UniProtKB/TrEMBL annotation:
Protein name (database record): nicotinamidase
NCBIfam families, A to Z: PRK11609.1
Organism: Sediminispirochaeta smaragdinae (strain DSM 11293 / JCM 15392 / SEBR 4228)
Biological pathway: Cofactor biosynthesis; nicotinate biosynthesis; nicotinate from nicotinamide: step 1/1
GO biological process, one term: pyridine nucleotide biosynthetic process
Amino acid sequence: MSASALILIDIQNDFCPEGALAVTDGDAIVPPINRLLDSPGRSGFGKVVATADWHPLGHISFASTHEGKKVNDRIEANGITQNLWPVHCVAGTPGADFHPVLDIDRADLILRKGTSLHLDSYSAFFENDGKTPTGLHGYLQTCGIDTVFLAGLALDWCVFFSALDALALGYKTTILQDLCRPVDQPAGFSDKRVGELRMKGVLVSTSESLI
């Protein structure tokens, strides 16, 4: 696994219980991620990358930014369909911080995304226009990485789109499903997303296979 990277997606306070956009049991993935980072398998990762939403106030993804709109509405903005969310992960606020138990010191790179006022970013690789890079691909290429393992929040959104982009960029891509949690709204949505990933060639495994 020396040419592989572990990518930890958006394990932030606002996506954990009591956060502004809480994912059910989102914090439950933190201890097993730490165990993986402490295991002999950690030495097999060439790099560990942690991503974080880092939104400005008035971000395009916030329902409150758009008069008359509510959470889970969808809008068209600059030719992109945008799902609307509660205000979350505002840059510099406690909600945007990584979960306090996550051993973030093990990360070789912290990558902040969704920093543009008028453009959201689900994927760790591209903004939602599908063409503006976050810089992650260039970093991994410089490091000689050809394989990525993904974990984090939420499985059916940011992990999903990160996996699709990783695969399209030519990485051998695996989701560690036990180290993810979904939004799963409506119920069953997450299973459909995982099925789509499998069909496209993304591998779905667990952290036990690496320890």
